[in-house]
């Protein structure tokens, strides 16, 4: 099925063709006709990188009235980075249509946002900043026709439920509500039940948390050997993200890579929002090949061309692992995720892999551990086995005789 057969306008079909997309993804095939039909609210569940933004964005762009200079669609996202990504993608999909799209989020001066909202027809924003503008009276929603919650599960995880409900109360009764999420926990379903009218539910992928196109490997290495192995990985056709646990580590690793001739930049929470935007912009345009980042980049950085994700140290849990490696293998493209583990961390990685429902194989780049490390790992394994079998047993009580 082609985009034209879904009922999209000529302008939308031309826009997606310019982007190089010839066929819709599964979620686009299911959701676009439902929104164009105009009869029901929509709940969509689909994995990260499956094309959800275009699934709701294309029909909304077709249905927005260009002649009305008022906010007709509001899209909430959990992070500033995702708000920027969604607004940029919508601009790329509008073609020659004169539809004003604007992103609002914290960390930006309020003045320019207020002036932009006077002419915006589609607003993309984070819950806190959207609610701030509503309370200031600078974001009027009287003419709102479409209200979209993108990555609803993540917004609720981040504690935005009260803000979201306050925004719902500020919207008109007659509107279309759409909710998209990679997972559907109970709090998301309860939110849908409270604010949506008999929604059409589209479940494209329920169990596949990690894109199937991602090849996953691990490398067990002593700390002193890790950087040398990383350089071997980067000598491949590498365009991707290296995840570190700390802000200091991102700066130090990026600097070390630059000294060795790699085009690398750090991205972390210590940077101002404009600085983060410029850094990510250079990466997205290919000026930078390597982004060394903390988990500030684990959500919302949507670059389909990313070839690799490297966990420079083992992630804290399965959720962090999934969000990190979800940056590659997007939109049907192949990707590779490599995780470094220290000696003795294999058991922990296997636990994370089981929780994530993935298979992570040993990389050919793994090296034989030195003898002292092998002995240390063996001692740790024996100690863990001892604790597992006997550590929790209470000592046997001797009966008193009277």
From TrEMBL:
<dbReference type="GO" id="GO:0016787">
    <property type="term" value="F:hydrolase activity"/>
</dbReference>
<dbReference type="InterPro" id="IPR027417">
    <property type="entry name" value="P-loop_NTPase"/>
</dbReference>
<dbReference type="InterPro" id="IPR050547">
    <property type="entry name" value="DEAD_box_RNA_helicases"/>
</dbReference>
<dbReference type="GO" id="GO:0005524">
    <property type="term" value="F:ATP binding"/>
</dbReference>
<dbReference type="Pfam" id="PF00271">
    <property type="entry name" value="Helicase_C"/>
</dbReference>
<dbReference type="InterPro" id="IPR044742">
    <property type="entry name" value="DEAD/DEAH_RhlB"/>
</dbReference>
<dbReference type="GO" id="GO:0003724">
    <property type="term" value="F:RNA helicase activity"/>
</dbReference>
<feature type="domain" description="Helicase C-terminal">
    <location>
        <begin position="229"/>
        <end position="377"/>
    </location>
</feature>
<dbReference type="GO" id="GO:0140097">
    <property type="term" value="F:catalytic activity, acting on DNA"/>
</dbReference>
<feature type="domain" description="DEAD-box RNA helicase Q">
    <location>
        <begin position="1"/>
        <end position="29"/>
    </location>
</feature>
<dbReference type="Pfam" id="PF00270">
    <property type="entry name" value="DEAD"/>
</dbReference>
<keyword id="KW-0378">Hydrolase</keyword>
<dbReference type="InterPro" id="IPR014001">
    <property type="entry name" value="Helicase_ATP-bd"/>
</dbReference>
<keyword id="KW-0547">Nucleotide-binding</keyword>
<dbReference type="InterPro" id="IPR000629">
    <property type="entry name" value="RNA-helicase_DEAD-box_CS"/>
</dbReference>
<protein>
    <recommendedName>
        <fullName>RNA helicase</fullName>
        <ecNumber>3.6.4.13</ecNumber>
    </recommendedName>
</protein>
<dbReference type="InterPro" id="IPR001650">
    <property type="entry name" value="Helicase_C-like"/>
</dbReference>
<feature type="short sequence motif" description="Q motif">
    <location>
        <begin position="1"/>
        <end position="29"/>
    </location>
</feature>
<dbReference type="GO" id="GO:0003723">
    <property type="term" value="F:RNA binding"/>
</dbReference>
<comment type="similarity">
    <text>Belongs to the DEAD box helicase family.</text>
</comment>
<feature type="domain" description="Helicase ATP-binding">
    <location>
        <begin position="33"/>
        <end position="202"/>
    </location>
</feature>
<keyword id="KW-0067">ATP-binding</keyword>
<dbReference type="InterPro" id="IPR014014">
    <property type="entry name" value="RNA_helicase_DEAD_Q_motif"/>
</dbReference>
<keyword id="KW-0347">Helicase</keyword>
<dbReference type="InterPro" id="IPR011545">
    <property type="entry name" value="DEAD/DEAH_box_helicase_dom"/>
</dbReference>
């Amino acid at each position: 099925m082609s985009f034209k057969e879904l009922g999209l306008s000529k302008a939308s079909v031309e826009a997606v063709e310019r982007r190089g997309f010839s066929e819709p993804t599964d979620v686009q095939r299911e959701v676009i006709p439902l929104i164009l039909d105009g009869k029901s609210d929509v709940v969509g569940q689909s994995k990260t990188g499956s094309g959800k933004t275009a699934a709701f964005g294309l029909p909304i762009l077709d249905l927005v009235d260009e002649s009305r200079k008022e906010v007709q669609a509001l899209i909430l996202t959990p992070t500033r980075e995702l708000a920027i990504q969604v607004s940029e993608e919508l601009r790329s999909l509008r073609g020659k249509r004169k539809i004003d799209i604007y992103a609002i989020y914290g960390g930006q001066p309020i003045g320019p946002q207020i002036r932009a909202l006077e002419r915006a027809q589609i607003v993309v924003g984070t819950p806190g900043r959207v609610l701030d503008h509503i309370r200031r009276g600078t974001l009027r929603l009287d003419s709102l026709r479409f209200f979209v919650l993108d990555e609803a599960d993540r917004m609720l995880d981040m504690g935005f439920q009260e803000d979201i409900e306050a925004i719902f109360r500020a919207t008109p009764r007659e509107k279309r509500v759409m909710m998209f999420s990679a997972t559907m926990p109970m709090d998301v379903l309860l939110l849908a039940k409270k604010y949506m009218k008999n929604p059409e539910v589209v479940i494209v992928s329920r169990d596949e948390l990690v894109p199937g196109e991602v090849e996953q490997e691990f490398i067990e290495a002593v700390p002193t050997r890790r950087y040398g192995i990383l350089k071997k990985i980067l000598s491949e056709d590498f365009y991707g993200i290296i995840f570190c646990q700390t802000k200091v580590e991102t700066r130090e690793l990026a600097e070390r890579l630059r000294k060795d001739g790699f085009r690398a930049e750090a991205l972390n929470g210590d940077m101002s929002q404009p600085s983060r935007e410029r850094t990510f912009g250079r990466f997205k345009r290919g000026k930078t090949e390597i982004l060394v980042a903390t988990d500030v980049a684990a959500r919302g950085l949507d670059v389909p061309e990313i070839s690799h994700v490297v966990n420079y140290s083992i992630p804290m849990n399965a959720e962090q692992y999934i969000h990190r490696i979800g940056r590659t293998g997007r939109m049907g493209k192949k990707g590779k995720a490599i995780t470094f583990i220290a000696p003795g961390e294999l058991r922990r990685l296997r636990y994370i892999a089981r929780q994530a429902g993935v298979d992570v194989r040993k990389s050919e780049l793994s090296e034989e551990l030195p003898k002292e490390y092998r002995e240390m790992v063996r001692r740790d394994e024996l100690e863990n086995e001892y604790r597992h079998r006997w550590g929790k047993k209470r000592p046997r009580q001797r009966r008193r005789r009277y």
